[in-house]
Amino acid sequence: MTDFTSTPFTRQFKKDCAALRQRLHMPDDTVVVRNKDADEAGDYRLARHGDVVDDPNWEITDITPADLD
Q: What integer is the mean pLDDT of 4-14?
């Protein structure tokens, strides 16, 4: 029987799944957002994902709330 856990496809699939899990949020999850109209860089805030997901004024970043400490 072939061991498929060590194939390049399987390793890449596991990496892709891990990356997707980091980007999927529930409505009550806290995310870091950036105001799209901000003149200066660094205008980041914490918000509930459900409040900003469809709001054109906010951009959800890849930054985690723990990174802001």
A: 75
